[in-house]
Specification:
The complex is a heterodimer. Chain A is mainly α. Chain A contains 17 helices and 4 strands. By secondary structure, chain B is α/β, with parallel strands linked by helices. The chains are: A mainly alpha, B alpha/beta.
Chain lengths: 401, 319
């Protein structure tokens, strides 16, 4: 067991690799999950209150009438009001730099023109506006302003009441809004944030483990060290078995660390989730961890340098997680890409995770599906490990000859 | 008494290249055997074959009177190896490195602690035991390399050019350490292409080239094998051709060359070489400056056997 202990000691000394590939990448998974799937607490306990987003708006009132003042007040009340200079360049610049998402220009004579048009059945005068291209809030504000003007036009057409009264009617109509609130739903099954965290765990579990194994144990591959070990009482077979065991422990540690990190962060939102569901997801991830371990073993057996090991592990992880649908849903990639993805272990791992997420309860059918997916992933690991063993043996034979 | 190492007719080929050509070697218990030869002469290959790190196509190897095979861990337990290149773990401290390599032979931790302490003291690394290899100088690194190979108290130690690129102070420490190991009962095989080192510490020397043993014996025995017995150098301002011819005609003179004010005379072994040469110069009225006389070196032995210098292929500054 001495080589095993030495190997673990060497990996322990490369703790920076763990910090980068396990902790940092797990944290990245949390960020992704938070951005896409909601907060750490999950949607079940999310705040049900609703707050309307307000656009940044400005008004250039060149009319100064009661109508224009009322319209300006309306915009002020329904936006984050900003002051903008009245000039062609200043107006365009305000929209271009998103100082204001919406700039309304009320031309001179607009109020009088609107009332006269309404009462004579003519066309209402045009309102000028500049809308920022950086979002839709300016356009939505414009819709509301035009709605306000149309309301005033309709009331003026139907009534001869003074303008102040017409304006107050419009304000009354505009204030009558549909109440909006967020309805909390009963949480069932795995929260989406945890699913996304698990999907992103495929990166540290594949590339992280591979890089840690390939570079952390590089010293054991040094030809002079191997020669020294080869001259000792440790046989070639025993050496390979002990290093293999150490590599397996590395994979398990990374998996356990990633799983523990996720459970610690999401334990709140996982309270109502059957432990069996979580166990199934972790089982699928463990299978992928085996693939990462085998891949690291392969890199190690090929004797690649530190730099190459890091590069290959990361590039392979990118490809694997992409084809697994971690970054972009596999449904959006087309049939060809999905067919290709089926030849990668990440696809089957994420498939198992998705199956647990979508299942309303843990059933025998679900367990069978996850188990078959995990088995398929483990097969990838077995094949890669076999290739690694053959490659390593070939290298040793060459060295002996 | 059974030889510690007995190698017979070993043949090792790398494709068309014959690295060991019917190489034979015997090492008696308690001796320091020097394996002397230029780079590429087959010294390291011979050691690797003894350790079963390389396969060979012909010949036999016995260690401690037992046939050596890759699975003879009982024999490997008695062997220590100090490879040519420093073979340590960069991630571990000096002490941890020694402990790791010692653990390949000794599993008991308490016993190992004592052995590691002894190894640290032996190579003088006690003050540097917590240093990682990259913090150690070249000489200290070599000492660590040695400590890793001897910590388990092997009976046979194979040193493969342990002083390459080492400063003189560390080299002396290494050489005296090897003699101490011998004094403590170890048998040592020491490969080198530095004849001075081999001559200094080895009780017996095997000169090899192109995978073959060219000559073996003690340093004196080897020197007696060749015709050169003495080399004389004399500073001479001017040497007439007649005087040079007279020198060459002397009975024990093998060659006489005059170059850049220095007369170099090679003589056979004789008691009167220097007196004869100086007499001849006196008769020719040649004014003589400084005079050097030295016995033959192992390099002369190698030169006479192979026709080339031992260091032809090993130009190293500062040695």
């Amino acid at each position: 067991m001495q080589v095993f202990k030495i190997a673990l000691r060497l990996v322990r000394r490369n703790w920076m690799l763990f910090a980068i590939y396990v902790l940092a990448l797990s944290v990245m998974g949390v960020f992704m999950a938070t951005g896409v799937g909601g907060g750490l607490a999950g949607s079940a306990s999310a705040d049900a209150s609703y707050e309307q987003a307000l656009p940044k708006a400005a008004v250039i009132d060149r009319d100064g009438s009661a109508v224009s003042r009322a319209l300006t007040e309306y915009v002020r009340a329904n936006s984050t009001f900003v002051e903008v200079e009245d000039g062609t360049f200043a107006l365009q610049d305000a929209a271009a730099r998103d100082v204001a998402s919406y700039v309304l220009v009320i031309p001179a004579g607009y109020g009088q023109g609107l009332l006269e048009a309404a009462r004579s059945g003519g066309d209402a005068p045009e309102l000028e506006c500049i809308v920022s291209y950086m979002g839709a809030s300016g356009s939505l504000m414009d819709e509301r302003v035009r709605s306000w003007a149309q309301e005033l036009y309709a009331l003026a057409a139907a009534s001869t009441a003074p303008v102040e009264e017409l304006v107050s009617w419009v304000e009354g109509v505009q204030d009558a809004r549909v109440p909006v609130s967020v309805a909390a739903t009963e949480q069932e099954g795995v929260p989406s944030a945890y699913l996304i965290y698990c999907q992103f765990a495929t990166y540290p579990l594949f590339g992280g483990v591979a890089a840690i194994v390939a570079t952390g144990l590089a010293s054991l591959r040094d030809p002079d060290v191997r020669r020294r070990v080869g001259a000792s009482c440790v046989g070639e077979g025993s050496f390979a078995r002990q290093v293999g065991a150490a590599i397996a422990v590395c994979g398990l540690v990374v998996w356990a660390a990633n799983a523990a990190f996720g459970l610690a962060l999401y334990h709140g939102s996982l309270e109502g989730v059957p432990p069996a569901s979580v166990a199934l997801m972790l089982g699928a991830l463990l299978a992928l961890g085996l693939v990462g371990t085998a891949f690291g073993f392969l890199l190690s057996q090929l004797g690649v340098s530190h730099q190459v090991a890091h590069a290959v592990a990361n590039i392979a992880s990118m490809v694997l997680t992409f084809l697994a649908g971690t970054w972009v849903s596999i449904d959006q990639m087309g049939a060809g890409m999905e067919a290709l993805a089926r030849f990668t272990p990440g696809y089957w791992c994420v498939d198992a995770l998705g199956a647990v997420y979508e299942a309303p309860a843990v059933t025998g059918e679900l367990v069978a599906r996850v188990a078959s997916d995990a088995l398929l992933v483990a097969l990838f690991a077995a094949v890669i490990a076999l290739v690694a063993v053959v490659a390593g043996r070939a290298r040793r034979q060459r060295a002996l000859a | 008494m059974t030889d510690v190492v007995s190698v017979s007719n070993l043949v090792k080929r790398y494709g068309d290249l014959v690295a060991l050509d019917h190489f034979s070697l015997r090492v008696a218990p308690g001796e320091i055997l020097g394996l002397l030869g230029p780079n590429g002469s087959g010294k390291t290959t011979a050691i690797n074959c003894m350790l079963q790190l390389l396969t060979y196509s012909q010949g036999s190897i016995e260690l401690f009177g037992q046939p050596m095979t890759p699975a003879r861990y009982d024999l490997k337990r008695k062997i220590g190896v100090v490879p040519q290149q420093v073979a340590v773990f960069d991630e571990l401290t000096a002490r941890e490195n020694i402990d790791c390599f010692c653990s390949l032979y000794v599993s008991d931790r308490a016993e190992r602690r004592v052995l590691v302490d002894a190894a640290l003291d032996f190579v003088g690394l006690r003050d540097f035991q917590r240093f990682r290899p990259r913090k150690l100088s070249g000489g200290l690194l070599r000492r660590l390399n040695i400590a890793c190979g001897i910590a388990h108290r092997p009976e046979l130690i194979l040193f493969d050019e342990p002083t390459v690129a080492v400063d003189p102070q560390s080299r002396n420490a290494i050489l005296s350490g090897i003699q101490r190991l011998r004094d403590e009962g170890a048998t040592v095989v020491y490969t080198s292409h530095y004849m001075e080192e081999v001559e200094q510490i080895c009780s017996r020397i095997v000169i090899m080239d192109h995978g073959r043993v060219l000559a073996q014996g003690t340093a004196d025995e080897l020197k007696r094998m060749i015709s050169t017995g003495e080399k004389i150098e004399i500073e001479v301002a001017d040497l007439p051709a007649a005087a040079l011819a007279a020198l060459r005609a002397l009975p024990h003179v093998i060659s006489a060359v005059y170059e850049a004010g220095v007369l170099r005379v090679s003589c056979e072994a004789s008691q009167r070489n220097l007196m004869d040469v100086l007499d001849a110069l006196g008769r020719a009225d040649v004014a003589v400056g400084r005079v050097w006389s030295e016995p033959p070196t192992l390099n002369d032995v190698f030169l006479e056997i192979t026709g080339r210098e031992l260091r032809d292929e090993t130009p190293e500054a500062g040695r």
